[in-house]
Amino acid sequence: MNIKSLLLGSAAALIAVSGARAADAVTVAEPEPAEYVKICDVYGSGYFYIPGTETCLRIGGYVRYDIGAGDVGSFDGATSADVEDGGSNDTWFKHARFALKTWTGQETELGTLKTYTETRFNFQNNNRDAGAVGALNPAGNGDTVSLNFAWIQLGGLRVGKDESAFNTFIGYAGNVIQDTLVPYGDFDTNVIQYYFDAGNGFSAVISLEEGAGDGTFGDYGVGTIDSYVPHVVGGVKWTQGWGAITGVVAYDSNYEEVATKVRLDVNVNDAISLFIIGGYGTDDNLTDPTYTFPAGGRGFYKQWDGNWAVWGGGTYKFNEKTSFNAQVSYDEGENLGIAANIAYDVVPGLTITAEVDYVNAGKIGDPDTLGSNHNWTGISAGDDDAIGGMLRFQRSF
What we know:
Layout (H helix, E strand, L loop, with lengths): L1 H22 L24 E2 L6 E15 L7 E4 L6 E4 L1 E16 L2 E14 L20 E10 L2 E7 L1 H4 L19 E10 L4 E8 L21 E10 L2 E10 L4 E11 L4 E10 L26 E10 L4 E10 L4 E12 L2 E11 L24 E12 L1
Antiparallel strand pairs: 1-2, 2-5, 2-19, 3-4, 5-6, 6-7, 7-8, 8-9, 9-10, 10-11, 11-12, 12-13, 13-14, 14-15, 15-16, 16-17, 17-18, 18-19
C-alpha cells in the first residue's frame, strides 16, 4: 500500500507541475491582417492604390527593337566604314529602346491631381562614317537616356515637361513609324497649360511654351525663347462619334511668326478611319532655307518648307489583329513623303510592324542647298529621293 500511495502521489505532483508550466507558456500573437494592393479603376485599367494612401498608380511602358535598311544615309538605313579600304558601305540600322511610364491620379477638393512621366533608355549601333554627309547622317538618339514627359496636372492646369500642344492637342499624324517625313512641328518643351473640357464634345487648350535645343545644327531645334516672352499655342476641338475637327494656332516669340493647323478625322466605319491636316505658317522672319543656325531657323512650329503643307492618310483594320496604315505628306517646297505599313498583333501586347518609306525632296536635291527638313537625315547632296524600310518589334505593357 505504501508503494501504491507513493506512485499515486508522484503522478499527482507531476500533473500539478505540468499544469503550472502550461499556465506560464508564451502566447503567440495573432498575425496582423495582410494589406493587399487594392485595384483602382477610377482612371482606367492597370491602376492600383499605393498602400496607405488615396493615390492611384499605374506603371507601364514598352520594349522596342527596330531593324532598318535603305539608301545610303537615308532615314531608315545606316552607313559603316569598310575595314579594309575605309570606304562607305550601306548597312543595317539597329535601335533598341526601353521606355518606362508612370501615371498617378487622386481626387482633391480642387479637382483631379494627375502626373505622367516617361523615361526612355536607348541603344543604337550608331553606324556613321566619313563617307556620310557629316551632320546630315547623325547618330540619332543612340546611347541616350531622356526624360520625355514629366508633368503635374491639377484640374485643367498642367505644368512640366511635355510635348508641344501644337502637336499633342491636334494629334500626331498617321499611325506610321516615320510620320514626320514632312515635319509638322517641333516637340520637346516645358509648358504651362490650361485645358477646358465642356463635356459635350467641345474642348480647348491654351499653352505657354519654351521650346528646346540650343539652336545648333547638330541639335536641330531652334533653341528656347530668347527673352521672357513665351511661345503661345491655342487650340479648340469638337469631337463626336463620327470623328473630330481640331484647330491650333501658335505664336513663335523668337521670330514673331504664326503657324496654324486644322485637322479633320472621320471614322468611316469600325474598320476604316481617315484624317487630313492642313498647315499654314508665315515666314517673313525665317531666314533659313539652308539651316543657317542660330541666326535663322525653321521656327519651332512651322517646320515644313514654304508657307503651306498637307498631311493625310488613314487606317484599315483587316481584323482584330492586323491593320494597314498609310500617310502621304507634301509641302510648298515640293517635298513629298510617303509611308505605309502593316501592323500585326502576334499576341496581346506584342506587335510587329513592317514599314516602307519614300521621300522625294525638293530643295534638298540641290548640292548648294542641303535642305531645311531635319528628318531627312543623310539624303546626299545631289540626290532628290530615298527609299527605306523598317521592321519594328514592340512589347507594350
